[in-house]
Design a protein that fits this description.
36% helix; alpha/beta; globular; single chain; 4 helices
Amino acid sequence: LLMRLSVMVLGNPARSSAARVAVRVLDLARAHGHALDTLFLYHNGTYAALNPRLPALSDWQRLASDGRLQCVVCRTAWQHCGNASAPPAPFRLGGLADWIAAVERSDRVLRFGTLDA
């Protein structure tokens, strides 16, 4: 049974493996023929889009092009990090409405990380 999958990342990549685990799960899902829908970076997960040197950024770019993954960064969290510019590709700014739409389209939804500071 093939499924459509969306993922939310909450953990700061400096202190959490949430982004790395999300990449691995999405890679495995795609390799098994599942459709990738949305990656949503929320709360401290937003930091995963801030540092272009992070290995996960190239992984997100690959998944966005190969797997058609939509990469969305929460606009409020992005601004809270002090960013006025747009996030790097493949990310775009969005909001919880984007996440809710992804949840409705998806057969499975996963969350990595916590809302801890």
